Amino acid sequence: MKTYSTWTKPSASQHMLKFFRHADPETKHISRAAEVFQKTLRVLKKKVKQRYNQELTTPAQEQLLSWKHLKLIAELSKCPPTSPATCRYTHLYKYRLISGLCNNRQNPRWGAANTALVRWLPAEYEDGESEPKGWNPERLHNGFQLPPARTVSREIMTSASKWKDDSYSQLLVDWGQYISHDITLTPQSTSTDGSDVDCLKTCENVHPCFPIKSGIRQALQRQQLNAMTSFIDASAVYGHNQKLESFLRDLPGRNGKLAVNARFKDPKGRPYLPFVTKLPSACHQDLQGERVECFSAGDNRVSEGLPLTSLHTLWLREHNRIAEALKHINGHWSPEMIYQETRKIIGALHQIITLRDYAPKIIGPESFKHYIGPYRGYDPSVDPSIANVFAAAAFRFGHATISPILCRLNESFQEDERFPHLRLHNTLFSPWRIVKEGGIEPVLRGVIGSAASAVSTDMLLADEVTERLVVLDTLKQMDLAALNLQRGRDHGLP
């Protein structure tokens, strides 16, 4: 369950966060079923307390509820089956399913979209089941009350200045964000009664709002879904379900290509990503010109920042370039085969860039050699599902490397006089700057030609992301560090 509300008055920026963490119908169905399951357990707990005048703790629930009972409650809650999916062998079986199912034919759901993030340690909730740390403000942890996430951010995390690390370019940071979106997405939950509680208008801890101010026990504890596949498979380009995949494809063209924007092209006639279908979208607008809606891609966070949008655009163009080349070489191929073979190549490129160029620079070449090393073939015994602690904590280290300035450079890799550098908060959810300010090239040259922000214990997150994050036409801002802390508590991270 995940919604955030930091202030008593709702802000457009909070609406923006909700918009870009909106769950697709399948994810929403699973989320609601899980909430019915959790509510049923709470009702049982209450009934036992009323009848026996005894508080039912999690160990007692384990004794009260057998696996048979849990399975029955799950079925009545309309939770999706956890039994192995059926993997059908067709002429397309050699290609990845868009959902990630059947990557492992012995355990078809491992790593698939809309499955739970895995736990390396049991979750730590205040009630043992679902209440995040800090849900009950008076509860002590190690003898102390938990400080508000915002207080921790302001006193420990925020840095007014950042210095550069000349060893790495800003592209390293932006690729990290891009690839994290390829493998993780925990959408916002709905309320337990099936309607959205307005978390913008409450400062109370009421499901599913948590405002900022294995064994049976695992089955009883609230888990979080990963809406994306856990594989580096370019699902950020192609989507993670058939409906989204079909929308992103140029099916009428029968050419194996992806759909492109019907309204705008860059200064050299190259395509942009298509717009979202739900209009008007929530993205910022150029008040002096025509509307430019949020872009659409395999991941709905595509418009969060200009470098992210630029990378998505680059992969769209690369898919269509490769598809055109394959069609020319193999004129007998069907549109479906052209599409699938191109998708296979694009997925491989994502893996190569991540494992050859990105990961060794993050954990160091020696650690990479020791813990990962060369590819030794497919191992069906390994569960590839993303760990909760990785998605909600470890991989968020990259937030400390975010630069407060987005550089835009001309063809000589100097500051572009027409399109000068921008403060980060002026680039968020602003796809109009891509369309109307020179395309993706000034941005890509900027991230390649500028150094990444260095990380040190006394300079963690730039105040651009702790004081000015996701700003619309409002005085209210969000705090990325506080959101990260609150997310960790919400996920029950030990």
TrEMBL record:
- Decide whether keyword Oxidoreductase is in the record: yes
Q: Name a GO molecular-function annotation.
A: heme binding
One GO-annotated biological process of the protein: response to oxidative stress
A single Pfam family, by name? An_peroxidase
Q: Does the keyword RNA-binding apply?
A: no
Q: Name one GO cellular component term.
A: extracellular space
Q: Which UniProt keywords apply?
A: Heme, Iron, Metal-binding, Oxidoreductase, Peroxidase
* Residues given in the record as heme b binding sites: H399
What is the protein named? Thyroid peroxidase
What is the source species? Pundamilia nyererei
Lineage at the top is:
Eukaryota, Metazoa, Chordata, Craniata, Vertebrata
Q: Which gene encodes it?
A: tpo
